[in-house]
Every structure is written in structure tokens, then in C-alpha cells.
Fold:
Amino acid sequence: MSKAAELAALIGSQSALSNRRININGNFFIWQRGTSAITVSGDDDFTCDRFKGWANGGGTFTVEQSTDVPNNEFEFSAKLTNTATDGSVAAGDDYRWATDIEGYDVARLAYGTSDAKTATLSFWVKSSLTGTYCGAFYSTTASRHYIYEYTISSANTWEKKTITVEGDTTGSWNRTNGNGLRIYWGFGSGSDVQGTADVWAAGEKWETTNQAAWIGSASATFFIAGVQLEVGETATPFEHRSYGDELTRCQRYFEKKGQPSTSTTWAFNEMSVVIAHTTEYVQGDKFNVEKRGDPTITIYSRNGTSGKISAFATGSDVTGTFATNARGATGFHAVQASSTSLTKGDGYEYGYTADAEL
Amino acid sequence: MNITSAKYIEYNGENTVILVVIDGITMSVPNNSPANRHYAEIMRQVEAGDLTIADAD
Structure:
């Protein structure tokens, strides 16, 4: 066979050479909320972009960006560290981390139809605690789950894991701008979320009784890199995308203007100076990326105070509370004061976050 | 989410936004946006009788 024929056969054997990776930020480039340790200690604690965690029952863990990676294929991994153990996990306690994928992006899996497709999840993992670990595919709208198990064989050693899941033909799965698919990683939760591995079933569960007690192991670590979900029965090489591409995709769900130079102080040189048109309004802003739906806007002053804007001349917070006056997926019209506290023609500053997370 | 206050913001005669304090952070939540997770939680608490949204000024 000629080289050209070999190439044609190779191309023809692939379902897609690009856009294979369905999930976003699987290379852990983007950390708009900060790359230092973010504590997960409740519900929906957002960490790196597109990933969030839960910790209910007394235990906590942190998530931070790490440069510890497998085979130098990636620049970053995510490092989870047990910062408060729960040695007696009860029903109702939960310790989990997940990425949510929008319905439009998983529609190609055709879940909930007779044409549901097999998907493969692959990722690199390294933990201080060996044993059996669990996770799950889950639909918030169809209330269906599929628990997967994998084994970490050697402590503190990168291992690649591949999980292949047959498509689910049952349920009403979101195929538009809602939550299409959640992928869980479990760290030792209560008996109420333990189920059977390798079958689709009703309800929300993400572990089996085999799950390692990671949350019960003081200072345990869990590194993860190269997360890829794709259609098909085979894990193909990780699809690398540019930093800008990943950032843009992440900004469909969360975006900020005015980068925080510390956790509470916002860098004024990245804020726009806006002029008060009246004693109540300054102009709004257009988002870099259209959101999946109308986002929640949090206005910040230069001092990092939410619901405040700053006077350009002094940097001081302006009296009153400030809110956006209209909603929209592409931007907001204006920022409105709770009282006539502005001086028409004066300059003001604000930063903001726009949150349209799933 | 610990929501400690909620109040409508009116613009052009419409309640467009709900100004809320969630976990100590003041936020502008779009009104009538069920796909927004904050709006969904506000409505859940309102329906449960745990939260009242104050009228706009």
C-alpha cells in the first residue's frame, strides 16, 4: 500500500481528528478563581474552571494548580489535598469533585435515545493512597447515573486510567444549554450514594462500597491531569488545544474583568474608567464571550468590596449599593446606584464577575 | 447558598434583576432566568417560604 493510501485509510478509520475532546479545561490551563489552594468545604465550591467540589460531613480538601505532570505531556495538573479528615463517614456525608458539560456539547452522545453512543473517559492520576476509586457519569435532568471504578496501584506514581461507558438509552437528557452530563470523582462518601458499578441506574450515586477512604486519610493527595471525554470505545491521545481556546470556552460559563492582585484587592489597571451619566448610573460592559444564559453579575470596587464601585480620583468606595440594571447573555446595560450618590461627569471604576456556571 | 437579603431592581418598569447577598457577597441575579443557578435557588427558597424578595424602590 502506498503512503498516500495508508494515510487515507488512517483518516478514514477515525471518527474525528479534531474536536474529539468534549470536556473543557481537561489540561487544567485555566484557573480564573486563582491557582492557589481553594478550599472545598460545602456545596458547589468552584475550583479550576469547569470543575467544582462538595465536602459535607466535617472533612475538607483543597484544589490547586500543580506543575507535577505525567511524562511532561502537560503543563499543569490539579492537586487535591485532604485538609481535614472524616474518619467516620455517615449517610449524607459527601466528598466529590466533578466537571459539568453543557447539553449542546454532549448531544452527539445521543443519550436518552436508542442511538446512544459509547463514550470513553481517560485521565492520568496519582495519589498517596492506593486502592479502588470510583466516579460516575450523571445527568441532573434524567436523574441517571453510571458508576465506574478504577484502581490506583502504586502510591505517588502517575497512572493512566481509561473508562468506557455504553450509552444510556433511558431518560430525558439535556441537549441544549443546561447541564448535559456531570462526571464525578469520589473520595469517600456516605452509604446513601453508593451503588453498583458498570450499569446505568436511576438516581444520583457516584461510588461503590469499594471506594478508598481518601477523605479519611490525613493529608492524602490526589493529582489528576489530561482529562478527556470522547465518543467511541477507545481512548485516543489527549487533544491539546491552545490556551486561548480553552480560556474562551471557559468564559462561556465564568468571566471576570479586573484581575485580583490578591484575594480581595482588584487591580485597577485592568478596570475601565467609566463616566457617570447621571447621579445614579454608569455604563455597563460587553462580555468577552457570550454566556450560555443570563449570568449573575457581581460588581467589585477597587478595594474588592462586592456591590460597590470606586471613585476614580480617590479609589474609595462610593456610598450606596450597586447592581446591574438589566440582564443578558452578552453584557449588561449599566450599573445602577441605590441612591443618587454619583456626581454627573465624574469618573468611576469597577470590576466584575459574570457567572453562568451549570 | 446562604441568602440573607433579596430585593428587586426595576428598570423601564420591569423587575429585571434581583439584588441579593449570598454567602456575604452582593450579587445581581437576572430575574426570570431559570437556567441561572442563583435564580433557581432564590426561587426554591421563596417557594419553600424561607425567603422574601423585597419590592424595588
Notes: Strands of chain B lie at 3-11, 14-22, 25-30. Chain B touches chain A at residues 1, 9, 11, 16-17, 19, 21, 25-31, 33, 35-39, 57 (CB under 8 Å). The CA atoms of residues 5 and 21 of chain B lie 5 Å apart.
